[in-house]
Design goal:
By secondary structure, the chain is an alpha+beta fold. The protein folds into five domains: about 1-60, no CATH class; about 95-185, 2-Layer Sandwich (Cytochrome Bc1 Complex, Chain A, domain 1); about 195-240, no CATH class; about 255-375, DNA Polymerase III, Chain A, domain 2; about 380-490, Roll (DNA Polymerase III, Chain A, domain 2). The protein contains 14 helices and 20 strands. It has helices at about 1-5, 10, 15-20, 25-35, 50-60, 110-120, 125-135, 165-185, 190-210, 260-270, 325-335, 375, 390-400, 450-460, and strands at about 95-105, 140-150, 155-165, 220, 225-230, 235-240, 255-260, 285-300, 305-325, 345-350, 350-355, 360-365, 385-390, 410-415, 420-425, 430-435, 445-450, 465-470, 475-480, 485-490. α6 (about 110-120) packs across α9 (about 190-210). The relative contact order is 0.07.
Length: about 500
């Protein structure tokens, strides 16, 4: 570098003594003077929304001051006159370095630079290696590269290792080869294989990145075939014309919008989605009801045998509006919504609903039909109330379910004073019974349920205990989380 550029600010910084004089105090002073938020550029990739990333950056660099844009250092012109520097050291080999300046103002020229360097010194196929190896038999290796010095300033660097006694002849051969390459250019016979080697090198580097980072997904489109690669897996897929992809016609009618945290909507949908019907002829049950009333968003799902209800409080009051989301839309939202406070905006129209969050936009149709009046289904007058530990109850139900009838999946819950018996039988007259000690002082009850319906709610609520309100053996049971009125689960009894 010093031999090429001479004595200017780029080479003065290479003085080792300058490094030895740097201490902690000098670094702190330099940081306080030079480092600022001005012109800060940070690039990130991962499962993080733009807003959350911006907040994290603001917190991490909050103490950095806002300083004027620093003065950019522009190096002086590189040395143009030829210069030879010889450094003698003991050894059997001589290292030859040739450096030549060049100006490349446009970064888009990088592929051309790569191919030119490959023709000049691309391993055994390059001109340099052939010249000194073929003519002199002198080289252990010869290569050429193009390095960036500053903005539009580049250096063509030629390097070769040769035996000491052939150093002068090799130097002359390298100079002559470079001069011919510079003056006459390249031939078509050289261009094609060099171009292919450069393309292969880019692909290889990409594959290495993908292999080292299994979380990365590589996409490469060539001749209407898409290569998808992640880790050690690779798929080659046929593609279709993008112009043929159908465009969804968005409704232009008046729509109502609301905004809430992603985790709130995800939590509400997760508390009800398991109660959706599956391919029911009552198509309006194959989805989830979104109901907005003033500042409350209610989410409801039912299959006719059980009903799950969840509510979230909104910051602003809105006009009443309802929409039934299709089952598939609900399941996809649960997958895509985040667990943070980043917002999701719902825009509900007459026949469409739009969800916008974290750079994602989902537009879904609305299921036509009248959702059942869920408020009339939720019991409010049951006098028999019991609090049950969620995990022990779920474990007992799972064990008893082993001997339940595979078709009806029935289970009997027998409540007596401070005791609960869980009983399952099957067609082979086999029986399983689990006993739990509970705090119960209500009426004796013998009530049957679908055991899957009970396990569903126990596996989806996040509390240590659940409260169960019951009337008689013919009445629906109401399951809630203690101290919370934002979740209700109603399950119909069954005769066993």
């Amino acid at each position: 570098m010093r031999a090429l550029l001479g004595e200017h600010r780029w080479t003065r910084a290479l003085d080792i003594r300058r490094f030895e004089r740097i201490g902690a105090t000098e670094l702190d002073l330099w940081r306080a003077e030079r480092m600022s938020r001005s012109g800060l550029v940070i690039v990130a990739s991962g499962a993080l929304s733009a807003d959350a990333f911006a907040r994290a950056i603001d917190e991490a660099f909050a103490r950095l001051p806002e300083l004027p844009e620093p003065q950019r250092i522009t190096p002086g012109p590189p040395r143009t006159s030829p210069r030879t520097v010889v450094i003698e050291r003991p050894g059997t080999q001589t290292i030859i370095l040739l450096a030549a300046p060049m100006t490349v103002p446009d970064l888009k020229e990088a592929p051309k630079l790569s191919i030119a360097a490959a023709i000049l010194g691309g391993g055994a196929q390059g001109r340099l290696f052939k010249a000194v190896r073929g003519d002199l038999g002198a080289t252990y290796g010869a290569s050429a590269s193009i390095s960036t010095v500053h903005r539009d300033q580049r250096i063509v660097l030629v390097q070769a290792s040769v035996a000491n006694d052939l150093a002068k002849a090799s130097l002359a051969s390298l100079r002559a080869t470079y001069a011919k390459w510079h003056a006459e250019g390249v031939t078509e016979a050289e261009l094609v294989p060099a171009r292919e080697r450069s393309i292969s090198g880019v692909r290889s580097a990409w594959r290495d990145i993908m292999s080292a980072n299994n979380w990365l997904l590589g996409l490469l489109l060539e001749d209407r075939r898409l290569q998808v690669k992640a880790g050690r897996s690779r798929f080659n897929l046929q593609t279709l014309a993008a112009a043929d992809f159908p465009r969804m016609v968005e409704a232009r009618d008046a729509a109502k919008s609301l905004t809430l945290p992603q985790k709130a909507l995800k939590h509400a949908l997760g508390l009800v989605q398991f109660a959706m019907a599956v391919q029911d002829i009552r198509y309006y049950l194959n989805g989830v009801l979104l109901s907005v009333d003033k500042n409350v968003l209610r989410v409801v799902a039912t299959d006719g045998h059980r009903l799950s209800y969840a509510a979230e409080t909104l910051e602003n009051e809105l006009e009443s509006v309802e929409a039934i989301l299709p089952r598939k839309t609900v399941l996809e939202l649960i997958k895509l919504l985040g667990d943070g406070d980043d917002p999701v905006t719902l825009t509900i129209g007459t026949n469409q609903v739009r969800f916008a969050f974290g750079g994602i936009e989902i537009v879904s149709k609305i299921v036509e039909g009248k959702f059942p009046d869920y408020l009339k289904v939720i019991p409010t007058t049951h006098r028999n109330l019991v609090s049950l530990a969620r995990v022990p109850l779920a474990q007992s139900l799972n064990r008893a379910a082993i001997l339940s009838n595979e078709k009806i999946r029935g289970v009997r819950l027998v409540f007596t004073k401070n005791a609960l018996s869980i009983i399952c039988t099957n067609n082979e007259q086999e029986e399983a019974e689990e006993s739990l000690t509970i705090d119960y002082d209500g009426d004796p009850l013998d009530i049957g349920f679908n055991i899957s319906y009970l396990l569903d709610v126990l596996n989806h609520v996040d509390c240590e205990t659940v409260t169960v309100a019951m009337g008689d053996s013919n009445s629906s049971a109401l399951v809630q989380m203690p101290g919370r009125d934002d979740f209700k689960y109603v399950v119909m009894p069954m005769r066993i």
